[in-house]
Amino acid sequence: MEKQIFRLYPPPFAQVQLNGLYLGERLFELGRPGRPFVYANFLASLDGRIALEDLETGQTYLPKSLTTPADFRLFLELQAQADCLITHGGYLRALAAGHLGNILQVGAHPVGEDLVAWRKAQGLASQPAIAIVSRSLDFIVPESVQAHAQPVYIFTGEAADSHRVAAWRERGYTVIFAGSGPVVEGERLISVLDHLGYRSLYLIAGPAMLDTVVRSGMLNRLYQTITHQLMGGQAFRTLVPGPELGPIGHLVLRSLYYDPAGPGGAGQWFACFDSQ
Questions:
Q1: Which residue stretches of the chain have pLDDT < 70?
Q2: Which of 9, 19, 68, 257 is in Cβ range 3.0-4.6 Å of 270 for a Cys bridge?
Q3: Phi then psi for 18, rounded to 5 degrees?
């Protein structure tokens, strides 16, 4: 039997099927030239932890108690609707070191194998493009990206190391400046991807990139799974690491679902918010 969860908002209250929940949003149809649809997805505990940091090694990690098959399925449904995935050098370094799993290809995980055919049925490219945001330009592009012939764009700031820029270009990669200093600016990043023809942009780049895109006013929708646990931890990561956002950070609840069988017996909410 397919997993069932409960719709709390918008009314009426109802029991619904998990699989296909986010596919029904049809995010790939919401972008348009000049205004691509930009969305992000995060997983957090009740006390706002999205990841913890090992105080001895400095390595950031995602606690297993925070993850669930249901959340991962919904993550993959959002991934399947993207024209382009926006990631960052830090993720690729962690992937190369074996600290994180590969989430760069649709259908790479058994729980999402059906999404390859779904994507094809919608007339989408077989795989999304990859936009890599990096200040240092120090990372490795995984072999799986070349194996699936995914277009790759590397974004950095104008103050980036010229030798590293040249090295990536010599290897055949497109390097694009999208910031006047050392870091990438959200509005310039989204504008370039828009001009390249991408209309559905999925941020899988972590809190720093979310912060950048929110402050630039370019985020359209935020999906957040909130597990009903207090995690604690002396060193941790949260959604937006920068200074106070103010009104630009105000969001409007679009939907809220409840899964009573969450991590470790705790429940979890699947929430969705639109920017104002």
A1: 1, 55, 57-58, 263
A2: 257
A3: -65, -55
